[in-house]
Amino acid sequence: MQDNAGGCGVDHITVERFAKDSQNRLLAIKEQLRKGSYQPNPIKRVWIDKLGSREKRPLGIPTVSDRIVQTSLKMVIEPIFEKEFVEHSYGFRPGRGCKDALRRVGRMLKAGNLFVVDVDIKGYFDNIAHELLMEQICKHIADERILGLIEAFLKQGVIEETNWQEAKDEGTPQGGVISPLLANIYLTQLDKLLPSEAMIWCATRTTSS
User: Is the model's pTM score more than 0.70?
Assistant: First the structure.
């Protein structure tokens, strides 16, 4: 995921500008969340180079306010789903990284596993079905305010240059703070079907586009 922490969203408010009046802005966000009236802004879409390819991939840039709310939301729900994630999953998880996955691969190779399967799910973030994702989330979260906020972020529209696009029934924008966690939740059922002692590719998977 490309770092867009300093960029501005569709409201043109940068992190620096937000910080100049952060106390009032944060209080306003807090009040909207308390009332259940918070509405995410549309996502600003830009296209960036795809590593190792001539193709480009879309990057969604939320507003600073939306990033703050998504970060808070992630802090609340991530510990719930961390208990559900499998041991051989490493992508976008706290306290885990590529080196941990490589160490696991090394141990498995020494144990006699001789084959490595490299799998890339094409357009993964763009094709996450909202209904199926929410079904997984609802199994572990009952708070209607939390569920409503997650759905609101999934239904954000997109602005690309001056063109407005309504949200579809699938996809979670790359660049969003909570997107990697939602992507992991969606793929967990597949992870659980794969035997951890045999599937090296599962140990190294990341939810890439």
Answer: yes
What is the rounded CA–CA span in Å between residue 186 and residue 124?
10
- Rg of the Cα trace of the chain? 18
The partner residues of 58 in beta bridges, in order of sequence, read 47
Amino acid found at 39: Q
Each residue of 127-162: b (16+ CB within 10 Å) or e?
ebebeebbebbeeebeeeeeeebbeebbebebbeee
Distance CA 62, CA 23 (A): 20
Token reading at 74:
């992630």
Which residue reads 């609802």 in tokens? 138
Question: How far is Cα 158 from Cα 17, in angstroms, rounded to an integer?
Answer: 23
**Which stretches of the chain score pLDDT less than 50?**
1-3, 200-209
**8-state DSSP, 59:** E
**How many CB atoms sit inside 10 A of residue 13's CB?**
17
* DSSP state letter for 163: E
Yes or no: say if 102 and 185 are a contact pair by the CB < 8 Å rule.
no
